[in-house]
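hey can u run this one w/ adenosine-5'-triphosphate bound, need the structure tokens asap thx
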Amino acid sequence: MNTTGFDHIRRLFEGPLPPWLTRLARKAGRGINRYGMLGEGDRVLLGISGGKDSLVMALILSLRRRWLPIHYHLEAVHLNWQEYPISDEETDRLAAYFDAIDVPFTQITTTMFPGHYDGQFNCYLCARNRKRLLFTYMKEHDIPILALGHHLDDIVETTLINMAMRGRLFTMMPVQPFFGGLFTLIRPLCEVPESQVRTAVEKLGLPVVKPDCPYKDTNLRLRVKPLVEQLATLDPLAREKIYRSLLNIQPDYLPISLKTGHEYTTVEPEGTDEGP
Ligand SMILES: Nc1ncnc2c1ncn2[C@@H]1O[C@H](COP(=O)(O)OP(=O)(O)OP(=O)(O)O)[C@@H](O)[C@H]1O
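ok here u go:
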């Protein structure tokens, strides 16, 4: 493994943090604490795509162990899709990065399009397949918590898609139990705006190696992104406010919605992003 190139990352674990990174870590910490994501002795699997979000999530979760009074175990898994594999050099760089942030790293080469999907494929099925593979690893390694790199912008975009295209006030949850609580999915960057994630990647030169997704042009989240940017020109806190609106539901609506149980659509339209 080539262990050179990430000494500047290693040093983050010793000396003082630059102020922009402290701000990012604080924002992540606010979300982590608000939803009680992590506690003493927790064992957490980090889902690593090689993209910017999961690399930054891994850095922040590992860095926070420097000052938190609790201990938790982190390990990372990268599903390397046979159909769009990353190169050996890219794998080496990822492994070197994880070595620098002191998180064990495993790469699993596997298929993105399982045979039982019968040629059918979209973003929703991809996310489901990915979770199935990660849950299998977690079961084998006795790890109950899965951390994914979704950030504030992802949650806001998903909220708007579900409102505008499915008629549902519904989004990705910061903490989401699966199989009656056997596994818990957490999104530690749920309060971190994408702009801060980008800053971290650029300033630290993180080894982003995400293969080109064949569905990226049909990805609804990408198409909603400019709308969110436009809203942010009207109010710079638009993202935070859309996110907060989910915690601030008009109480009069709740009994009505519970009584009617009304839904406009119940099926996942083609190419939707993953639900909550
Ligand atoms: N190949 C993979 N192996 C393991 N985990 C993955 C993989 N692809 C995605 N994930 C996890 O699912 C999250 C959401 O994936 P998505 O494809 O929507 O990427 P994203 O939101 O652009 O994030 P990133 O920048 O980390 O790729 C990622 O942040 C990561 O935690």
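The first strand starts at residue 43 and ends at 47. anyway lmk if its weird
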